[in-house]
Amino acid sequence: MVKVIVDGIPVDVPNGSSVLQACEKAGKEIPRFCYHEKLSVAGNCRMCMVEVVGSRKPLVSSCTQPVMNGIEIRTDSEMVRAARRSTIELLLINHPLDCPICDQGGECDLQDQTLGYGRDCSRFRDKKRAVTDKYLGPLVRTVMTRCIQCTRCVRFMNEIAGTAELGGIYRGTNLEITPYLEQAIYSELSGNLIDVCPVGALTAKPTAFRFRSWELKNTDSIDVVDALGTNITLQVRGSEVLRILPRRNDDVNEFWLSDKGRFSLDGLKRRRLDRPWIRQNGKLVESNWDDALQFVVDKLKSSKKERIGAIAGNLCDVESMFALKNLINKLGSDNLDCRQDSAYYDTSYRGHYVFNSTLNGIDEADALLIIGSFPRQESPVLNARIRKRWLSLTEQFPIAFIGEFLDNLTYKVDNLGDDPTLIHDLLQNKLLFNETLNNAKKPMIILGHGALIRNDAKIIFEKTLALAQKIGAISDDWNGFNILHHAASRVGGLDIEFYPKNKSLDTISMLEKGNIDLLWLLDADEIDLTQLSADCFVIYQGHHGDRSAERADIILPGATYTEKSGTYVNTEGRIQRSFRAVFPPGDAKEDWQIISLIAQSMNIELPYTNIYELRGCLAKTYPVFKSMGVDKNKMCSSIKNSEKNIKKQPLRSIISDYFLTNSISRASLTMQECSKARHANLTTKAAE
Amino acid sequence: MSENKMNIQPTDFTFDKESEKQIALVLAKYPKARKASAVIPLLYIVQDQMKRLTKSAWIPKIAMSVIAKRLEIAPIRVFEIATFYTMFNLEPIGQYHLQVCGTTPCWLRGSDDIVAACKKATGIKEYGETSKDGLFTLSEVECLGACANAPILQVDRDYYEDMDGQKTIELIEALKRGEKLTPGSAINRKSSEPVSQKQSLPENLRTK
């Protein structure tokens, strides 16, 4: 530790800290443009100047200056203030005065810091430079004349996103930020460029000129487009979610959010189901709640209990699944499934179906084996975390990959191929990578759904778990066995046992012809309903007129994740809660309420009347929900290695189009455009 | 790179035998993991190859992609470097690149006359233009590091020192005829020694 005095306040900071970090620890605000906590230090904006007392060169840029023992720093001397004034003045030389029409206005670092540290008027009388705008795809709008060349975007693309597409060309006053090719940025994290840009050079294209930052009301929420549980802030004006921003959580997503999570928001308003619909004479007809409830109640009453089934989708919150499970159970059926893809999980221990290492654990791992997963598409932010670890070990983080290798994973992997029987070879110490795994102190294995949705998933799972035990990935202080989920609702669904037990029907058998008379779909759109017999009565409870609503006999309009307060369990098993930002449109209701209403109409008593009682009941039934956050999970100590062999059938990726994986993103015009742009990207890439 | 000239970009680029030979020599100088360091030499090799093959020393954008692939770096990194250095031409230029130093010592010693002579002899009106016959491109460059022999006119990679207007015209006329004058001092001085009499390290002092 090093002792530093900042404006008379003594602070202790670790060796090698920068002066800026010391100043922050002392509670002093240091203005900055180019410095970003999660990016490398550039030191090119010169805004964070502080005075080091007694130094021969007293003015230093605090982000690049390492601390020395006993130095005294002044952050608010006349010298510092003059330096900041000059820096701002120089930055403003070529910055246009278009704040009134700039989307960044109101949340612009340059605007704020000019107000705080700049001069009161401009002395500049010359011509300003202008820069042509660049095309970065359908998500990021550019006004490059506003750019102050902090290079945060360049560093973000290089370091975090891992697709080095942006760079600074020319030099001096002519320096421009530009992509190499004039086409959409090939990254799933490009929306974060908008966040890191301190000025209005990079802004959101889909929502350009739609709102001012001070008009928005913030609500904390959880992203549901993948299973990472990215912490987000929903920004609302009136009854409309206008922007989704990542909320900092160093344990989960750090500062980042995937493009799908950020820009699907126009899908929240399109193709919405805002009133009940009932199928009459083969056609869906608008209806009202009274009729719809009566209709459902009659159907439920007249159906045989063992021929009732329910499937929960990928976007459901735990509360609505719990309520549905209670209702179906009380009706006397246990035909429940939250696995639309019919994936195999060993639910005997919680540690067998979650990401045990946790995201923070990735920062400690020293070897990684990925089986049947393509994390860049299944969870871009998690992928960035793997890349971060890979970069921090100066590329000495050995990663092997078994599965369908779609494209650049943004880190170097040893691509072993898509043959799952390689697991046999690994178990028998036959591969070169075995040595790496055996030598590693904290090895990690990520098992994805490319493997778990196969027919022989059970064998793959058991073999992989055996492999994890063999290489010492599971010990008292380290658990390197991980399942990477893609559905936001999945771990929660498994936690509340929303799956069939004993001889009850699972997704596949429920969808087979003639097995079931009444099928309740809770937001379930990723299933194939064509095999269902024509006289099977389908209740679709959900928010979008997507795939399943077409087959439904009755539609009960539900709420999206922005319109209800819900609990979500991410792939780590981390329990997080979101809050309601807006009300559901039209007659739509929160999902657990719909279920509760139906229960009431049938005189079935559910032991809760509001969401708090529901959560209390949930925590009582499943103690894991007693507190938020993530805990260590139990693992089986002696797993039996399966006798059977894995089939020699190649592993396939579970995602065909990253941008269109759920009903919200499919309804989003922005996502459709992204999908097209990505397709064009890949075509030119293939041509090369 | 101006937008209207983008359409002159060729659609493909491959190194020829001569270039491959040079690349092998260059890459041998760097450790394998650090071969990205060879980006500047490779850019020169591209420029030389273009001169050999098309009589115009410039670097097409597709060539940057080829370099990036060879050095296993992102193409944008090559693009950044190629645009940073003024020595790399990103658009086709004339067969001879006339580069006049306009920095203070050269300017004091009469670089304006050289510029005027270049313009007169080639018909070029402004810096950056290429003459109508496609033989010459005139550029102003910063200090060439040969101030003692100012003013300097650099033609491609050769320095013509101690120039004046008349000699510049003679040089350009010779180039038009396809002759190449010997580079170096135009007044036959030895390296950077004084034109008249040695002022420092005279022989008599040295022998003492």
Please specify the SSE layout and strand pairing.
The complex is a heterodimer of chains A (688) and B (208).
Chain A lengths: L1 E5 L2 E5 L5 H7 L23 E4 L6 E3 L10 E3 L3 H16 L15 H9 L22 E3 L9 H10 L4 E4 L6 E4 L12 H5 L5 E3 L12 E6 L8 E7 L2 E7 L12 H5 L13 E4 L2 E4 L2 H14 L5 E5 L5 H14 L4 E2 L20 H5 L4 E5 L3 H4 L1 H13 L6 E4 L11 E4 L4 H6 L4 H8 L3 E5 L1 H4 L4 H14 L10 E3 L6 H6 L11 H5 L6 E5 L14 E6 L11 E4 L8 E4 L5 E4 L12 H11 L9 H11 L41 H5 L1 H19 L1
Parallel strand pairs in A: 1-5, 15-16, 15-22, 17-18, 17-20, 18-19, 20-21, 22-23, 23-24
Antiparallel strand pairs in A: 1-2, 3-4, 3-5, 6-9, 7-8, 10-11, 11-12, 13-14, 13-24, 25-26
Helix pairs in contact in A: 2-3, 8-18
Chain B lengths: L16 H11 L11 H16 L6 H11 L3 H10 L11 E6 L2 H5 L2 H12 L13 E6 L11 E3 L2 E4 L3 H12 L7 E2 L17 H5 L1
Helix pairs in contact in B: 1-2, 2-3, 3-4, 6-7
The main pleated sheet of chain A reads as:
7 strands, mixed
What Rg of chain B, in angstroms, do the CA atoms define?
20 Å
CATH homologous superfamily grouping of the largest domain in chain B: Glutaredoxin
Strand content of chain A: 15-25%
CATH topology of the largest domain in chain B: Glutaredoxin
Helices and strands of chain B, in order, run as: HHHHEHHEEEHEH
Any low-confidence stretches of chain B, pLDDT <50, length ≥5? none
How would you name the oligomeric state of the polypeptide chains in this document?
A: heterodimer
Report on the architecture of this protein:
The complex is a heterodimer of chains A (688) and B (208). By secondary structure, chain A is an alpha/beta fold. Chain A has 4 domains: 2-93, Ubiquitin-like (UB roll) (Roll); 100-205, 2-Layer Sandwich (Alpha-Beta Plaits); 294-344 and 490-626, Rossmann fold, CATH 3.40.50; 355-484, Dimethylsulfoxide Reductase, domain 2. Helices cover 28% and strands 16% of the residues of chain A. Chain A is built from 21 helices and 26 strands. In chain A, the strands form 7 sheets. In chain A, strands 14-13-24-23-22-15-16 form a 7-stranded mixed β-sheet, with helices on one face. In chain A, helix 2 packs across helix 3 and helix 8 (318-331) runs parallel beside helix 18 (591-601). Chain A starts with a strand and ends with a helix. The mean pLDDT of chain A is 93. With 208 residues, chain B is an alpha/beta fold. Chain B has 2 domains: 3-84, no CATH class; 96-185, Glutaredoxin. Chain B has helices at 17-27, 39-54, 61-71, 75-84, 104-108, 111-122, 165-176, 203-207; strands spanning 96-101, 136-141, 153-155, 158-161, 184-185. A 5-stranded mixed β-sheet of chain B has the order 2-1-3-4-5, covered by helices on one side. The model of chain B has no long low-confidence stretch (mean pLDDT 91).
